[in-house]
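Usage

Read records sequentially. Each one opens with the input sequence:
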Amino acid sequence: MPQTDKQLVGWRELVGLPDLVDCRIPAKIDTGARTSSLHATQIERFVVGRRRMVRFLLDVGGGASAPVVCELPHADHRSITSSNGQSEERLIIKTRIKIGSHVFRAEFSLTDRSDMKFPILVGRTALRRGFLVDSSRSYLQSSAEERRRILR
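and closes with the structure output:
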């Protein structure tokens, strides 16, 4: 087997969004999805000067903290086809994500994921930055203490 410098992740991981919140958030790692998505509600577009911005409510779930109001430049909007085959026009933001020791910028589509188990879905475009996925394992980038707390 060839040597690789890619980091191994499971099908679910705790990830950080250091520009938005101070906690780690459960995320589904999904190589079937091209674009990552983030649970956002009350999404509003506005302009500051000539800069297109988006304001949304980020609820990371689990009752760990109150929802956070986030304001970021919005990078784009595009039609995203969800796993159920429905197309939806979504705003796209770019923000830093931390998986294990890797911190990098990634694109996220903003959508209401309240009916999903994970508030974040990390798609294959973000994973290209140096990750291999072991679909039989979970939380490979978490400490033993974090895994015990999560899997209780």
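Summary fields computed downstream for this record:
- The radius of gyration is 16 Å.
- Residues 7-151 form a domain with the Cathepsin D, subunit A; domain 1 fold (CATH 2.40.70.10).
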